[in-house]
Amino acid sequence: MPIALYRIDDRLIHGQVVVGWGQPLELGFIVLVDDDVAASEWEQELYRMGVPPEMAVHFHAVDDAAAALGAFHASPQMGIVLVGSVETMQRLVAASSGQIRAVNIGGVHHAPGRTGRLRYVFLTPDEEARLRAIEAQGVEVTAQDVPGARAVPLEEVLTSVSSA
């Protein structure tokens, strides 16, 4: 089965991902792509604690993840790929040789220098440019916090202003 979702979520593995997306998509695995987490057994163990035992979690640095995407797409189980930043997703898309066709902005939260676009998406000008660069590679970029919500196209995200 294919990877059901490529998601940017700065919280990485948390209840909304595991329950909110995991149950409706019947996920069998999560691929967490983060160079620092991939190098830290301690952080990996923390993220594993948030996942039910029947759901596998794979940790990869960006380059390793891009090389492994074919195997994950060939898995008999449904999976999602999670990254914690727009920059990481841009690197993964660039390294994936066209395997990624759609990206979900699931949660990029408030931080200094970021402008609220949706109640769950705050972006810097650099992050906005990176998302446009991802889209320019033929990747559909939308924002959607939960499966039942409307997928908001990137252009609409970038022209929205949220006070949340």
Architecture overview:
This protein is α/β, with parallel strands linked by helices. The chain has a single domain (3-159), classed as Phosphotransferase system, sorbose subfamily IIB component (Fructose Permease, 3-Layer(aba) Sandwich), CATH 3.40.35. 38% of the residues lie in helices and 27% in strands. It is built from seven helices and nine strands; from the N terminus they run βαβααβαβαβββαββα. α4 packs across α5 (86-95) and α5 (86-95) runs parallel beside α6 (125-136).
At a glance:
The protein is of the alpha/beta class and 164 residues long. The chain has helices at 15-25, 35-38, 41-48, 62-73, 86-95, 125-136, 154-159; strands at residues 3-9, 27-33, 56-60, 78-83, 102-107, 115-118, 121-123, 140-143, 152-153. The mean pLDDT is 95.
List keywords for this structure.
164 residues, alpha/beta, Fructose Permease, two-stranded antiparallel ribbon, 7 helices, 9 strands, 27% strand
User: Stretches where pLDDT falls below 50 for ≥5 residues?
Assistant: none
- The helicity comes to 25-40%
Span from first to last CA? 37 Å
* CATH secondary-structure class: Alpha Beta
Number of domains: 1
Average pLDDT confidence is 95
**Biggest sheet details:** 7 strands, mixed
Quote the CATH topology: Fructose Permease
Described by its quaternary structure, the protein is single chain
Note the run of SSEs as H and E.
Answer: EHEHHEHEHEEEHEEH
* 3D shape: globular
Strand proportion, as a percent range, falls in 25-35%
